Amino acid sequence: MKFAEMRSFPNVYQNFDPKDPKLLGINDEYFQLKGQWAEKHFKNNNPITLELGCGRGEYSLALAQMYPERNFIGVDIKGARIWKGATIATEKGLSNIAFLRTKIEQIDLFFGPNEVEEIWITFPDPFVAKENRRMTAHSFLDRYKKFLKQGHTVNLKTDAISLYEFTKEVLADRKDVEIQEDNSDIYAGEVSEILNVKTYYEKIWLAEGKKITYLRFILN
Question: Which residue in the list 20, 28, 108, 125 is annotated as catalytic?
């Protein structure tokens, strides 16, 4: 029922077939949005922020309310999670947020050069045994460069120390990276408003005593 209902949402686009990637929106209508998200969906020229692996979209939803002058797109492969976020966005009347259901491995197929101003990666699967699937691996960063504006930021917020350390090693290997902030325990000191957004699972991990880490870096 959720999947059927999601096909009627004007704020959701889905890529159903990875072998034939294309975006289907409301009533399964085909949409060509690469390089045209601002014009065709948001109907404005406001900057676009992506949240990759958005889950229920809690972070994107919070940011959309905090920054009405910006546009946000939550990306995830899990349909039930996308449904939840899109439903909340509709109930709150948030027109500056959309959701894209696709594999992150194909993200560069749906955004044009310089179309995105910022990326958030919030509590992604650390893929302990599969480094190449981690969303901060070299192959993923190279994908992001195809559509991220020159000199703009990527943010990683995670409870997985292994992913945090892995990402620092990857960034150290690259000549096109400038680290702006490196925090191994964001709640040990004063927390900015944007970092103080807590997802459902983040609250659970904090209650278990886990540290939340944060990296912000520029991809040039």
Answer: 125
Ranges of each domain in the chain: 2-219
Q: What is the pTM of this model?
A: 0.95
Pull the structure tokens for residue 189: 């000191």
Distance of alpha carbon 147 from alpha carbon 145, whole angstroms? 5
Which of 208, 132, 198, 115 lies closest to 166 in space, CA to CA? 132
Verify whether residue 125 is a known catalytic residue. yes
Collapsed DSSP state (helix, strand, coil) of residue 207: helix
C-alpha separations of 56 from 85, 89, 142, 161, 208 in Å:
5, 11, 26, 23, 21
- The three-point CA angle 167-81-165 to 5° equals 10
The topology (CATH level 3) of 2-219 is Rossmann fold (3.40.50)
pLDDT in tens, 103-138: 999 999 999 999 999 999 999 999 999 999 999 999
Model pLDDT for residues 14-27, shown as the tens digit of each residue: 998 889 999 999 99
